[in-house]
Specification:
With about 180 residues, the protein is α+β, with helices and mostly antiparallel strands. About 60% of the residues lie in helices and about 20% in strands.
């Protein structure tokens, strides 16, 4: 029971709410200030990390341009080698070489593909002969003809060519002589 006059009661109630608001404001401002202090290092970390990412992005963009120019340079060199090969008169030798290989095939054999890969400075190149043989003996005979013509070390026939007795697809690699 409060025996104070009604005016004092209202005055004390106002004073109570004012103190409550001031105290609450003080605690809220302390809370905001401490949160800001806690977030300042995080802010600096994020900005420095963002700057690092921008530097890395610039570095990789520059590197990507260098790699693209190196790839372009390698392609140009490759095309120049091919043009030089075609202009050097080696194509006549190559076509006669293809003719010699085709002459060595047996009946019952079909050569489905002849591919040539130009070698680097020290090796003249490699020919890949793909085809189909009706029987294993025909393939072995063809391989022996090639070995007699070009040498044992120049003809490479994978063991997978001999897995079946009939209807076998084959691949023979021929290291071209100089």
């Amino acid at each position: 029971m409060n025996l104070l006059p009604e005016e004092n009661k209202i005055l004390y109630k106002r004073e109570y709410f004012r103190r409550l608001i001031v105290t609450g404001g003080f605690f809220a401002s302390v809370l905001l200030f401490s949160a800001a202090l806690a977030l300042i290092p995080v802010y600096f970390f994020i900005t420095s990390y963002g700057a690092t990412l921008k530097k890395e992005e610039a570095h990789f963009a520059e590197r990507k341009d260098k790699i693209a120019s190196l790839d372009l340079e390698a392609d140009i060199k490759k095309i120049n080698r091919r043009i030089k090969f075609i202009g050097s008169g080696e194509t006549e030798k190559l076509s006669s070489l293809f003719g010699r290989v085709i002459e060595k095939r047996n009946s019952g054999m079909a050569i489905t593909s002849l591919a040539f890969k130009q070698g680097e400075m020290e090796s003249p190149g490699k020919m890949t002969i793909m085809g189909h043989a009706a029987r294993r003996e025909q393939l072995i005979s063809f391989e022996n003809h090639l070995k007699r013509e070009f040498g044992d070390q120049k003809v490479v026939s994978p063991i997978s060519n001999l897995t079946k007795d009939k209807d076998l697809d084959f691949v023979i690699f021929l290291n071209l002589p100089k």
